[in-house]
Amino acid sequence: MSHPATPRVTRPRTVLAMSGETRAAILAPEALDRLARVADLDPRLLVTDFGADDAAQRTGLHQAEVLFTGWGCPPLDPAALSAMPRLRAVVHAAGSVKHHITQDVWDRGITVSTAAAANALPVAEYTVAAILFANKNILESARVYRAARSRVNLLERFPGVGNYRRTVGIVGASRIGRRVIELLRPYDLRVLVHDPYLDETDARTLGVERTALDTLAAESDVVTIHAPQLPDTQHLFDAPRLALMQDGATLINTARGSLVDTEALVKEAATGRLNAVLDHTEPEVLPADSPLYDLPNVLLTPHIAGSQGGELHRLADAAVDELERYAHGLPFAHAVDPRTLHQQA
Q: pTM surpassing 0.85?
């Protein structure tokens, strides 16, 4: 009787390519030890510039079958790829691969994996916390209590707060958007979603209402943005669309700052009509005199929603998991599809 062939286990020659800061933050000693067990790796070799005049780097790249990348990896252009004739896979221990994966990578048939699914988790958690706090009017109630320093008549001051049967609008059924939907399921909320690539069947499976963007803006108590940065999404929430939002509604942006017209949002927020929770802005760091720092109805955070601190270790674990699958001859669980990459962040 014949038996199925056992997948061949290898230790692929692997080289690290990322910034020194990224390596220190992501690859804790435990992760490096596990990586060294899975791959044939020189932990002392870190590539930050593919064109560097370094003999050890040239030898390492020439032998590399896998590139283990992170934030700060230089672009894999033709010159870089020419130094890696044996390269078969790129495992990215972070989210978007658009900063370093070029068309030349796909043309060479190199497979690419990303830890974007792991990076989506803390962003979704931040977003759900912001949604629940927004519907409880936390910023305003805390301000009122701080000023009063005595009992506050909640029914008088905040008659409409709460999360029961409120409407949440999710812009983008992306990895993060879908994780937000999943995390919101235990709550008594109506969830609207706008995404040009989401069809009715998918919407029913997710348990959400698929709707036009203007309808979502007008009917939602909280709008949260999870769409990619594309030419078509530039200032997706401009002055006319912000004007559609209900008085007292909250806009959450953990995606890209360019999706919101900052000047238009400042004007709306300055009147007190809209609230905002912003982890991304345009520009990425606002000028010191921006009103958004001081408006009481705006919560501004310094790009903290994504993986930070101990959460970075999840990215390393996810990437090493992928490398282990590769070493066992298995396909990546989180392979990047070049045909749909343009739809992603």
A: yes
